[in-house]
Design brief:
heterodimer; A: Glutaredoxin; 2 domains; 10 helices; 10% strand; B: mainly alpha; de novo design (two linked rop proteins); 2 strands
Amino acid sequence: MKRYLPFVIVAVVGLITATAATMLYRAKRVPTATLELSPAEKTPNKWLHVRGKADAPVTLEEYGDFQCPPCGALSEPLNKLEEEYRGRLRLIFHHLPLKNHQHARAAALAAEAAAMQSKFWEMHDILYREQAVWSKAGDVSELFNSYAGIIGLDLARFKKDSAGGEAAVRVDADSRRAETMKITTTPTIFINNQLVPASSLNPAALHSEIDEALQKRETK
Amino acid sequence: MARSKRAQGTSGSTRADVILHVIAAVIAVLGLADATYLAVQFLTGEAVVCGGSAECSKVLGSGYARIGPVPIAAFGVLAYFAAFTCAVFAAFDYARMRRLFAIVVWAMFAVTLWLLFVQAVLLHAFCRYCLLSAALVFVLAAIVVLRPPAR
């Protein structure tokens, strides 16, 4: 029996490690962003950031600032809602970097540079998740580069795109759109084009708002 | 008895050898957990947060944290598992495994020195999980120095 004991110990530890790694991976894995645009969206606004099915009955549109703490607090609940209502809810994100947030514009540019490599939502998620860290940093470029590395972007291209004109044009276009709509605070959320009141910007209330929007669609 | 030990490649370890290799196996398991956590974090694309410190992200998001698409932590998982396997077999008196354990640990030690250099000199940032791993490798190396494999 003693002869086999080291084999058993090694096998058991190997098995436990593999199981723990798999469980941790499943628990932490961020749902893969699915970019499905309707034909109408593809043509006039190719820069739109959409997560979820194009024909979902409910659309939740957010004007957000990556450095705004309430936006950060809502980010994960919104991801969970999209997961929960899979196929029935789609999320759209628009930039509205507020001037009083030192690094908000740089973060928006980083997200756009990631979008140019089809990884907008991955950068969106990591920026919100790490908001407390980079918000306090003096120079955020190194941190954003490291996030780009983590989500597997081509770093040289990311650096070039972050500093380039196209990312700025995209962010400015979103900001102008918000200005036209007289949106000045973040997060501002619309569900099926209806403004969600500030008092309902919490997971439970958003849940109810989405349910209500779904019911309206079903009764139509 | 002596013949059967030779047949197994065993050397008749002392009690101290057994205890040290058991300690080495436990340390290797700790390192295995640390490296597995870092590898999984890398694969999920999640930045590692070390108590609000930005340095972890800087180190683990740098180009030094991977070889091609493979995170360094994944090699760490393999190295710690190899060290653990050798330590367990060495504790069960397999002489060849003591030699192999020493080789694996010195290789890990060399890589650890390189990674410490990268953090201190090239990145000017330290990742606590990497420092924990470095400390564990230093302890493993100390065990090898205390009980070098018989020639």
